[in-house]
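Field log, afternoon session.

UNIT: design team B
ACTIVITY: writing a sequence onto a fixed backbone
BACKBONE:
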């Protein structure tokens, strides 16, 4: 069966649905989908911008103080902290 045969054999209900979808109802559905897509894109852009801002400010965060009681000196303590959380110290 070809595509044309399917269209010719449509029932009356199918033809009514086609008219609705092509008409005002179809236009409303398309507008709603566009609004939802725009909202989704806007929200995604906001979340990405937050990630970028967090990454930009990560190196500006205050460093933790190195205590005097570090087992092998302050340098060892600072290096071990840097290994645990790279990029934040």
């Amino acid at each position: 069966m070809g595509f044309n045969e399917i269209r010719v054999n449509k029932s009356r209900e199918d033809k009514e649905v086609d008219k609705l979808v092509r008409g005002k109802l179809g236009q409303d559905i398309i507008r709603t989908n566009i609004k939802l897509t725009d909202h989704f894109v806007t929200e995604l852009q906001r979340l990405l911008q937050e990630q970028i801002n967090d990454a930009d400010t990560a190196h500006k965060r205050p460093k933790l103080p190195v205590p005097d009681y570090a087992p092998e000196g302050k340098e060892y303590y600072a290096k071990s902290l840097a290994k645990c959380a790279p990029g934040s110290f």
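LOG NOTE: Residues 5 and 40 are 40 Å apart (CA to CA).
NEXT ACTIVITY: expression trials, pending approval
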